[in-house]
Amino acid sequence: MGQKMDRAVRRGVIMTGSVLFGGFVYVVWGWVPRADIRLMLIGLCGGLCLLGLFWGLWQRRQLCGFADELCRTLDDLIAGRKPEEYLPYEDTLTARIQGKFLQYYDLMSEGRRQSRQDKQVIQELVSDISHQVKTPIANLQMFMGILQSHDLSREKRAEFLDTMIGQTNKLDFLMQSLIKMSRLETGTFALHVERTSLYDTIAQAVNGIWARAEAKGLRLSVECDNDITARHDVKWTAEALGNILDNAVKYTQAGGSIRISVRPWQFYTRVDIEDTGIGIPEEQYHEVFKRFWRSEETAAQEGVGLGLYLAQEIVTRQRGYVSVKSVVGEGTTFSVYLLT
User: Fold this and answer.
1) Residue 93 lies in a domain
2) Do residues 224 and 145 both lie within one domain?
3) Of 2-6, 182-186, 292-296, 327-331, where does the model show the most confidence?
4) What value, to the nearest 5°, has the Cα angle with vertex 18 and ends 12 and 23?
């Protein structure tokens, strides 16, 4: 149908030009007395008509070529490939429009890639949650079944109830950790980073582990001047430091020590958390920051493998970083670097 309309347009242009040319000849023949002048005017008019006709056909051909190139560009982009005929360094209308199409295509591709990545993160979170909550829920169901179906002594019932309370606390801790992890990974939290004293932040972190350290007989010392500052979010940084300290308390034998020291550098402020615990093999330095990772040596201890992962994510989102050095059997030092 489009080709028929195109042919009809061409016939209409030719017929219109013929009618105008014929009318011009008629007027000239009737009004101009000299034959040589008449022939000259008619020839000039015919030449102009032919020139206009050729110019219109050439413009139409250019326009059709331009439209065909844009259609091929769109077909390539729809198929998910970049146009083969795209010449980014040519200063032509076609190249400029193709460039805009490619910019739009890149934006849409980035949006699709981000959407797939977000979907994958959500799927991994759901898988992790279902895997991690399975054990405490199964334990609770088992103990409730025993309490309902067996006639136990008061002491045994109290023992089972204490175990169930422990499993409930573990489940609550796990869910809180998973919520924090999901908020970090999906970006649904706000960091309020400002230059403020580290002394109060470290005090908050220490308060969370003080009772357990004292019950275990651990010596705890802090070296931090009141005037040392760094750019950080107080609440989330205290959470990160508290997670590292929690590991130090957990994996340091009774009677050991934990030392916190703060040193300002030129661009960063360094917070060292040093313990005399079981230590970490060098080949596991990067593994300890992975989500839900736990070594065979620590599998018997309480935990889900999220503390160090959360600590690193929190510090990284404040443009800082965390490093670790350790000697197996002697202790570990985690260093947190925050912008000054």
Assistant:
1) no
2) no
3) 327-331
4) 125
* 259 and 309 fall within a common domain: yes
Instruction: Determine, yes or no, domain membership for 90.
Output: no
Q: 70: which strand partners?
A: none
Find where tokens 């016939």 sit: 11
Q: What is the DSSP string of 266-332?
A: SSEEEEEEEE-SS---GGGTTGGGSTT---GGGTTSS--S-HHHHHHHHHHTTT-EEEEEEETTTEE
Domain that holds residue 218: 194-339
Q: Which of 15-19, 89-93, 173-177 has the lowest mean pLDDT?
A: 15-19
**Does 221 share its domain with 302?**
yes
pLDDT tens digits along 20-40: 555 555 554 555 455 555 556
Q: What is the pLDDT of residues 211-220, one digit of tens each?
A: 989 999 999 9
20 and 111, same domain (yes or no): no
Q: Report the percent of the chain where pLDDT is more than 90.
A: 29
Domains: count for the chain: 3
